[in-house]
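hey can u check if this looks right to u? its 479 residues, i copy pasted from the old doc so theres a chance i mangled smth
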Amino acid sequence: MTHHPNYIGGEWVAAEAHVPNVNPSDTDDIVGEYALADASQARAAIAAARQAFPAWAALSSQRRFEYLDQIGSLLIARKHELGMLLAREQGKTLSNAMFEVERAGYTFKFFAGECLRMQGDHVASLRPGIDIDVTREPLGVIGVITPWNFPIGIPVWKIAPALAYGNCVVFKPPELVPACGWELARIIHEVGLPHGVFNLVVGKGRVVGEAMTTSPDVNGISFTGSVAVGRQIGLAAMQSGKKVQLEMGGKNPMVVLDDANVDLAADAALDAAFYFTGQRCTASSRLIVTDAIHDRFVAALRERMRRITVGHALDPATMIGPVVSEAQLAQNLEYLDVGKREGARLVEGGELLERPTKGYYMSPALFVDTANGMRINREEIFGPVAAVIRVRDYEEALHLANDTEFGLASSICTSSQKHAAHFRRYSQAGLVMVNLPTAGFEYHVPFGGTKASSYGSREQGRYAQEFFTTVKTSYMRPI
């Protein structure tokens, strides 16, 4: 079994402990053994980043552009190889895995361009003879902590802008799926990024994450994960004056009105609720449907669910792969029991499936006769489980859509321009879709939510500079 070391200060550094990376499509397949960093290695990575920061921040924007553009090109060129690896370690289909890798490559290329697009402001002073310049400078050392559902996509949309704006990075990938993060480190090493600018330490959150949040040499933490962990990180980081960017949970509504195109709405719900095995923070797990269309919509969605092929991630016929882990599968099944105990009616799926290889397979599940106060409609399940809530009209639908502690994404399916415009304005979510699934993002526009879903400035696009830079205002009297 190949052991994969951590990457600290431009060197591959072994560790005493390792964690196996298990293929959820075939639990007999071990992707590799990955070094678990201890606190001393985490501190060494932070020190390497701190030492590298002055030179990297002062490097020409053209040179930073060249590094990031080359990283992006290598990711795109290796999308099949890395897609195979991603599908093995995380369980999403090969086509989706390859798309994620390719999108990561283009994200690097976008932020390569951002290296050359940094702008400031020259402002007229209220006092004669005074010049004022407003400029942006890199924040410093950034700790990046990412989840298991997008093993290369989410890390890249944090790492690429951090590097583009002149910061150094200490990256903690999830120990459940570290392979793609490790391969990214290998590509970064291959292009010759100056030592210490990027560091990878695989490890437990209570070890590596705590070292990041408490170190005075880390200037910012960008985290994606659960609400509970995000709040802990935020509190710990802010006690030492760090800037914090937190992307957390979602309980995203899709509203379907009487005048919606049933086929379009059912297709959108199928995609948002069940594709990627429902393991997306933007997944639609609450389907809020008005009376007149309710039964037709449920029938159309159930018919589509029956055509879904659940199987090995590398099987070309597979539409939905396995759940990522045994623990996640157990949590999904527990929520099915919770829904039944609360009085919801399971009308489709929710069954454990046997396949030629041992894996964490389940059929997508659909509840009806649910109320918005049920736990299955309040708590993020993070699996292929959706619940339908019947409502009278648009006004009730909007009220229930907003009746949640979360506010990441929302969607409405309707042919009414009036209702579409009103929903876009009054939906309490950071991402609002019309006649589209709640899931899906583009790297050149901002991503993030409201309420408990997000804290801090937005990710992606030019808005990323709000977190990864700090603003300086300079006054000058020419001599």
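The first helix runs from residue 39 to 58.
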